[in-house]
Amino acid sequence: MFRKVLVANRGEIAVRVMRACEELNIGTVAIYSEADKDSGHVRYADEAYNVGPARAADSYLDHEAVIEAARKADADAIHPGYGFLAENAEFAGKVEKAEGITWIGPSSSAMESLGEKTKARTIMSEADVPIVPGTTDPVTDPEEVKEFGEEHGYPIAIKAEGGGGGRGMKVVWEESEVEDQLESAQREGEAYFGNDSVYLERYLEQPRHIEVQILADEHGNVRHLGERDCSLQRRHQKVIEEGPSAALSDELREEIGEAARRGVAAAEYTNAGTVEFLVEEEDREAGELLGPDANFYFLEVNTRIQVEHTVTEEITGIDIVKRQIQIAADEEIDFDQDDVEIDGHAMEFRINAENAANDFAPATGGRLETYDPPGGIGVRLDDALRQGDDLVTDYDSMIAKLVVWGEDRDECIERSLRALREYEIAGIPTIIPFHRLMLTDEEFVASTHTTKYLDEEIDESRIEEAQEQWGGDTGDGSGEDEEGVEREFTVEVNGKRFEVELEEHGAPAIPAGDVDVGGGAEPPQPAGGSSESGEIEGSGETVDAEMQGTILDVKVEVGDEVAAGDVLVVLEAMKMENDIVASKGGTVTEIAVEEDQSVDMGDTLVVLE
Predict the structure, then answer these.
(1) CB 275 within 8 A of CB 164
(2) Three-state DSSP state, 572
(3) How far apart, in whole angstroms, are the C-alpha atoms of residue 212 and residue 227?
(4) Pairing, β 541-544 against β 496-501
(5) Helices of type H across 304-389
(6) What pTM was estimated for this model as a whole?
(7) pLDDT of 517 over the 60 cut
(8) Is the dihedral of CA 444, 449, 453, 454 positive or negative?
(9) Half-sphere exposure in the Cβ direction for 479 (13 Å, CA)
(10) Helices 250-266 and 117-126 sit at what angle, rounded to 10 degrees?
């Protein structure tokens, strides 16, 4: 078994992995960016190392910095969590080649085969796993998309090969949208996954999203741990996940599970993974299940631990993260497929710092003035934040996961309502009111919803009413603490973190900040450049950033005439593209940003006259 594991991630998943390590008597190492220096995963770890500034590309995605941190810590394994480098075959390959360090995850070759969606579709098809009609080679020319549309009809899904969770996926509803959506999918693929290759699929308009949890070891054992139903989504991002699915018959459930095992075995895949399927919904009465004749299609394999792995852990009693570590240490799976039993029902609620009533807009700042999570039988919290923590907005908006178990789905829903009522958070907005609404929603309770329900069918006024009724104190977003005086310091020596605490009463705040002694990163500059950067010279109406993020594309040039609604800039924030449009017509007199530049909320992007 390993001595010390570096967790190449942040937040709740980093803490989740560290807890598994603690139970296996393994030391833990955290990495952190400048933005995360006071974050919960840093507090939890046995030791922690700074890997760079806030921008993910310069810290959590920096291959050499992460591996160097593992060497400094004398870690003998790296666990990637999910997101960031978790599905990066190149990084996995570098870890595999690093002397004395083991990669906790599937091999880089398996990640490459299944992580690139066109290769995965080919493997699954050869293993007799149903796949959605689509291409098995990357598409680069808009004409190829149009030809596919002529053959299979619209809508068409354009998907990034390295994508997942809806990122890098664009839907083309008619031929006129082909060029723009192809370009957008390629740009997202490059921005998020370093791979602008895309492929095409027929877009299913009313599917359920069913995924199967897989474990496979180096000794030829492949097990599936049942399915999860992730059909409640917003813009292809899962919001509530549950297991087992309340829509599937046992016969269909077995068919899908065995198809997942068959495909993974054909790919010679090891460690944990998730095989995702789309199941076509049918017209059915309340209580009627989808039978063995229902159509289901392979979607993709997530070659990592999933956010929602907790659901499967609750209904099987199997610690998936521990199993990942044990498999990486060449231990053999010690149970048969028939030993896997599904007990009860579980749901996971993503506690995102977002305002569901405002198009799920992410919080731009704030402090957890109150953080009082629920408890009781069947209630689990995976989090990393504590009361008084400032919200870090440089990455995704999820701050915690509430996981609830019940003897059946009805009890799980009732217990979830109780837990969500208990969950008290003040200082930032969250989607807890939205979750409470969904647990009383007829479509969700009957499990007849599809992946399109939130985007196309639900009455949005109900979400606004829920936020108003149960939203509580969301703070002003400033994160300012008027009374507090900071008495905690972080000292970095050769990149390693040390904590220094000073207690003093009645004294003014000490302006020293963090101390960096050799090997540390330069102090982060204000977004958009240093405080000495030039002022905006153009006159007229300024178009400002509505949230913190990174500029992906500038659509206009100085002198261009634009109309109201024209896209000026594409801003990436919270892992989603946001089109910044002109509120009225005019002439572009100045452009204050460029591609790949980080901006803060309120920064001027474009000046119109």
Answers:
(1) no
(2) strand
(3) 4
(4) unpaired
(5) 309-316, 320-328
(6) 0.78
(7) no
(8) positive
(9) 10
(10) 110
